Amino acid sequence: MNVRFSVLMPVYNREKYVRQAIESVLAQSFTDYELIAIDDGSRDRSLEVLKSYGNRIRVIEQCNRGPEVARNKAAASALGEYLVFLDSDDYFFPFALSIFDRVIRSFDSPPLVLGSLLLFQNEETPETPMARSVEVFKFKDYLSKTRPIGDSHKTANVMGSIVVRKATFDEVGGMRNSTSQTFHAEDSHLLLKLGNYSPCIVINEPCTTAYRQHEENSTKDVKLIADGTLRLARSERYGEYRGNALGRYAIIGGRAAHWAWRYCWRGGKRKLALRLLLGTAPMVLVALWAKLLRRLRKSTEAIIFLEE
Question: What single-letter DSSP state applies at residue 127?
Fold first, then answer.
């Protein structure tokens, strides 16, 4: 039997956090969903935690191949009209799926919806945002998006914000067949593949996903994120994406410039910063030009308030 949402959760050595992630899905006010957890060859008790939920969740096992392969495997058997991604160290606020459903109904089943991230430090417990009104922006497509995804400018991964129609995910070929060492920037790669699908709806308020910042985040490895960004640039040059190349140049270049300055250069990894900038130089220039144009133009974006 088909459902509205398939929530896909790759799990690798997350026994400390995965229970909270699972409980946040099971506590959703919207109940037309399935949760598929993919154990990616965990060496701790993560798989034991997953199996403790019995038939309330679906568990898939694989050897350690990384989260992209895990998500593809889960998507292949998913029954949902839409795929929703949640990392095993993050969690949804109780109204997340309900808001995703409202947005989908309000905009006639868009191919791509982006939720809003609330970042928190591991030792904190963020308050659940108020969900009285839903504020969204509607863009022609992802490449036209000019609004950040919650606090996404502070992190290198927005996977937990992506809601994509399964038919669209299948049409672009899903995610890469990467490895546990080369999966970085997987969110950007998927979004660039989806870049020209219209429309793209960005949820401004309330935040739907709590993104946990801790020492084991994959984004803590500056070199691997830089390497992942360079792989995005190579994918662009090899023609892996379709449609508006300038829009993708601006996104890849903006990501490269931000990471090179904020994390590589300021972190003392100046050779890495230069390698990243040189490897994406044309894209960085396009990103800077696009940023200048946005500042010169008056914003015409309007917040859309969804009715109950």
Answer: P
SS3 of 51, please?
helix
In the chain, what are the domain boundaries?
A: 3-218, 221-298
CB 272 within 8 A of CB 264: yes
Mean pLDDT of all residues in the chain?
93
The SS3 assignment for 126 reads coil
Q: Residue 5 is inside which H or E element, if any?
A: strand 3-11
123 class by beta-carbon count within 10 Å (0-12 exposed, 13-18 middle, 19+ buried):
exposed
In the predicted model, is pLDDT for residue 237 greater than 60? yes
Q: What is the largest CA-CA distance in the chain?
A: 56
What is the C-alpha separation between 107 and 201, in angstroms, rounded? Answer: 8
Q: Which CATH class is domain 3-218?
A: alpha beta
The burial class, CB within 10 Å (0-12 / 13-18 / 19+), for 169 is buried
H or E, element range at 8? strand 3-11
Report phi then psi at 80, rounded to 5: -80, 150
Distance CA 273, CA 279 (A): 10
**Which pLDDT does position 302 carry in this prediction?**
81
